[in-house]
Design a protein that fits this description.
2 copies of one chain form a homodimer. Chain A has 252 residues and is of the alpha+beta class. Helices cover 22% and strands 30% of the residues of chain A. The first copy, chain A, has 2 domains: 95 residues, Alpha-Beta Plaits; 137 residues, 2-Layer Sandwich (Alpha-Beta Plaits). At the A-B interface, strand 4 of A face strand 4 of B.
């Protein structure tokens, strides 16, 4: 009997060429498919909720695959896969879901967090997971700059050349900075994201804050639909795909 | 004018062959001496409070060196060194101290922490910094087993072949387990430590707890002065040199 297995996956993206299988380089999807191939003795295709770029981390990436192996209870895939996977990928959960479940098409909300260590130096064990900036921004001003982002907008300004999506319209539910211990954290939730959109938003917001701009300027840049108006793209190391939600009512 | 500069250093030990300069391999002392050499245009000798083994981390290693460079205020060595050092070493503080200060001979108390993730899996960004064990120990029993360790003892049982110290007598002030978030942490403070002593203690305590032994057994092993009585040595990845204190009254 064919079963559809949903995986919750965390990974340290530092040493990966991103999520998606490439002709060259180590990828998260590639490593998990390799382990699934050993278990099944045949090629198994894994579908992820979306790609993450080279160097981007995940606390709760979601993926699914179909299996005909009746002798493995769904939750046992966690230990079986972890015993074969490299230590920078961990399966947090494996569960059987309905045959129709599709980790990308059914995803309703994606939540990312971007970690910034502003001013001072960063302890070595945090260095792979944050963007160190010399300037220490004012969080109130950052949040005023980020305010125009919530809602439904065309985010053409904040994508990278080569983004394959036809429509650049996305809905954002949350886009706000908070403090977590020694870190400044940008939390962003939306129905979906364009390529490099989160990093482009973070880089632009930080640059506008430092330059003294107000939210009118942010609004003007957003509505310009001109990629050359965006600021620098923040580095991949600070970005975590935190959660993927499949029920719109679960918005937090 | 010659000045003596004291450094507080943190590092991720994963990719180092330990603290001390070796004929082969990357070492923390070696990397800092290389950066000091560039600043001074001559070889500068750095003295550490003690060696840490390959894979062991430090939050507050202490080291000192002599400089004749009058044009660099002591605290500016922090930024100057950090700009040249690899990102897995960070200088947290640089300060001028008296000419007589010696980071090894003057150290009164060393404090280590050992991180254990018991049961379940470990998120990828914690994996380099903890020992994952399948068994989940009882913290009360661990603390009863560790109780006989405080005080002045001959720790021959818990060292490794090749330890160069003549006397194996050391004084321990604290040796206790606590819970910190998802981790079980062994905190140990002593005047000094033998080679691999902390890792040997952690491995032995965990093994005795799992085997159901009581503190009499721990006392017997300690006083046997027989290395073959010790349990396994816990892996380097869980161990952090947390602090080195130069004033006995500052015991915490």
């Amino acid at each position: 009997m064919k079963r559809n297995i949903k995986l919750t996956v965390s990974y340290d993206g530092t040493d990966f060429n991103g999520w998606q299988v490439q002709t060259n380089g180590r990828t998260v999807q590639g490593e998990i498919e390799k382990a699934l191939g050993i278990i099944h003795q045949e090629k198994i295709k894994l579908t992820g909720s979306g790609r993450t770029d080279s160097g981007v981390h995940a606390k709760g990436q979601i993926a699914n695959f179909y299996t005909e192996k009746d002798n493995i209870p769904a939750d046992k895939f966690t230990a079986a896969l972890n015993s074969m996977l490299p230590r920078d990928i961990r399966i947090l959960k494996a569960e059987a879901v309905s045959d129709e479940f599709h980790s990308r098409f059914d995803a309703k909300i994606r939540i990312y967090r971007y970690y910034i260590k502003a001013g001072g130096s960063c302890e070595p064990w945090h260095d792979r997971y944050c963007w160190r900036t010399r300037h220490v921004p004012d969080i109130g001003r950052l949040n005023r700059l980020a305010a125009p982002l919530s809602g439904i907008h065309d985010f053409t300004t904040f994508t990278a050349a080569g983004d394959p999506s036809k429509s650049k319209i996305r809905q954002l539910y949350t886009a706000a900075f908070t403090i977590e211990g020694a870190f400044l954290v940008f939390k962003i939730a939306g129905n979906a994201f364009l390529w490099r959109m989160v990093r482009s938003l973070v880089g632009t917001l930080m640059q506008l804050e430092e330059g003294g701009a107000g939210s009118d300027e942010m609004r003007r840049i957003l509505t310009s639909l001109d990629r050359s108006e965006a600021g620098t793209t923040a580095p991949a190391r600070g970005l975590f795909l935190e959660k993927v939600l499949y029920d719109e009512r679960s918005i937090i």
